[in-house]
Amino acid sequence: MNHIAIKMLMGDTGKYIGIIMGLTFASLIMTQQPAIFLGLMARSYSFVSDVGLPDIWVMDPKVQFVDDIKPMQDTELYRVRGVAGVEWAMPMYKGLLKVRLTDGTFQTCNVIGLDDTTLIGGPARILQGGLADLRRSDSVIVDVDGAKDKLGKPSAIAGGKRTPLKVGDSLELNDHRAIVVGVAKVTRTFQSQPVIYTTYSRAKSYAPRERKLLTFVLVKARAGQNLQELTQRIRQSTGLAAYTREEFKELTYNYFLKNTGIPINFGISVTLGFIVGAAIAGQTFYNFTLENLRQFGVLKAMGTGNWTLLRMILLQAVMVGSIGYGLGVGLTALFGYLMRHSILAFKFPWQLLVFSGAGVSLICVLAAVISIIKVIRLEPAIVFKG
Predict the structure, then answer these.
(1) CB contact burial 172-186 (16+ within 10 A = b; e otherwise)
(2) 66 and 248 in contact (C-beta within 8 Å)?
């Protein structure tokens, strides 16, 4: 009977392909759009992920996410260092500054100031130069994506590709000269703005004059120290906000989740993909069942029970669902692979396979239920009607 069910399914090639295409579309949308959403949300806290050495981030209590800059006085650094359980605490400057390029245009960049002595918080992957080169006069390290695109030198030909920045090139930050001594690979930020690393003291000279310029205090806990207890101790002793790395990521993630329209936009796309896929697959599968009612009637007249017919329909649904799901997931993976070097955000965890698989399964169940009801109510006498 399984062989007969498959032969019936593939008998009408057009409808067979139509069902698979509908399920493929649904699987693709329910996998691709959440993957882009997760990639975009991961970029919101990518800066925290790249700074892997500190255990705790200390900041102004009113900071809502990683790019919500609310500077503190430099004296807060020494207060944090005096808290019991702190192995070391280092300053970090983070701010948006305008960079003047060689052609006179301006580009807003994330400028990161690292502790002058230890350079803690710097990029982990240096493609050209070295992190220690930041100790040279007027030196900066730029991220490779910014160096190739937004910070690149304009082409001599109108509309031509920019010439990437390289070691030895210069920039201008707030009327100060900056010499590129290295190029680093960092994770793209939410706004995909170029990232420039320099020392803390130099970053303060680049930034507009303010009384407060300390953005974060990066803390390393002593061996065996409970991080939750230490963060609580820092909050009580200094009155500042203190978060572990994962807590700071979650704070940033939740801010973008609650205060932007990103979840709603992607949620609408996924819902529409499910509805359209369900409509196409369900209607086509139902029409396929209607056209095969006589065949089901013959089987009933020959003594085939309802349970056997139901198993045949479920087999057909499982078969087209598996093929459609596989094609949709495969196209999503191919899309992500092709876009891996582009500006597009894309993150494809295994949980998305379960999510889209559940969605396709639900579509197949709904389509099969509609067809099953029709077959159960079928009278074998239909075979003898004209």
Answers:
(1) bbeeeebebbbbbeb
(2) yes
Separation of alpha carbons 255 and 245, rounded Å: 16
Distance CA 63, CA 72 (A): 11
- Closest by alpha carbon to 328, among 21, 34, 35? 21
Phi, psi of 181, rounded to the nearest 5 degrees:
-115, 0
Burial class (CB in 10 A: 0-12, 13-18, 19+), 260: middle
54-110 per-position pLDDT tens digit = 999 999 999 999 999 999 999 999 999 999 999 999 999 999 999 988 778 888 899
For 311-352, the three-class secondary structure string (H helix, E strand, C coil) is HHHHHHHHHHHHHHHHHHHHHHHHHHHHCCCCCCCCCCCHHH
Q: Is 355 left (phi over 0), alpha (psi -120 to 50) or beta?
A: alpha
User: pTM for this structure?
Assistant: 0.82
**What is the crossing angle of helices 262-291 and 306-338, to 10°?**
140
Q: What is the pLDDT of residues 262-286, one digit of tens each?
A: 888 888 888 887 887 777 777 777 7
Residue 21 CA, chain-centre distance (Å), reads 27
Cα-only R_g, the chain: 30
